[in-house]
Amino acid sequence: MHRQYLHAGDRTVAYFDSAPGDASLKVLVLLHAFPLSAAMFEPQLRQPPPGWRVIAPDLPGFGGSSEPAESDRGTDIDDYAADVVTLLAELGVPRAVVGGVSMGGYVALALLRRAPDVVRALVLIDTRATADTQEGRASRRAMLAQVDREGVSGVGRDMLPKLLGPTTREAGDLEPTVRRIIIQQPASAVRGAIRRMMDRPDSTRELDALAVPALVIVGEEDAITPVADSEAMASRIPAAELAVIPRAGHLSSLERPEAFGERLVAFLSRL
Ligand code: MLT
Fold this sequence. Notes:
Bound molecules: D-malate
Low-confidence stretches: none
Shape: globular
Number of helices: 11
Radius of gyration: 17 Å
Number of strands: 8
Mean pLDDT: 95
Structural class: alpha/beta
């Protein structure tokens, strides 16, 4: 698995591509969670759904992508969606199924606002459509202070037990991989993402009007965006199905790639 790099204007967008340049395949874009990178999609990149090409960008500042330019609007999650639009345009991909895990889901919803024509179908994975609560914003502020105090490893240490479900944690084999991905991320990227997540708008109205099919996936043991959040999203979307992945936490695509893949393939095969 090698990172590819695209330079467009003042942006460098790094990404993984399971079949570079193969225009005969349909495209599934996967957007990663916080505070990870596109490396979390190794299982899906190694074994893409049959007939599909998986493209997984590093969101701005993460992995190999350059730091986000501050837009006139300040810190806006739509900046992240802009990079995805740029990448797909440069790769000559007019439409794609867009899937996002947690923060990646917030970006998928931003993409729906910013460039709805690009989205052929939506896969919302361990995420939510609502904005941060007051309490959530207070935790973000505490996390910003923690990044200043302890760096990214402190955030990783506190988040790891919540990112992985108890079943995965007991098995113990995935923790080192997730920790390694987290500590590779620069503090500036983590700060930028925290600010964007705490300022993100509510997207539930976009779901009510969603005109494309959607699959909502959630790990049964997800402690960050619990099953109830996914049920709420699926119930608002006119054409949605809900898949609960047994024995998985917040990183269901990484924790249970086989079960996750089965539900994803079943959905994609109906498009
Ligand atoms: C994520 O996994 O991307 C984050 O937990 C999302 C969040 O903190 O809202």
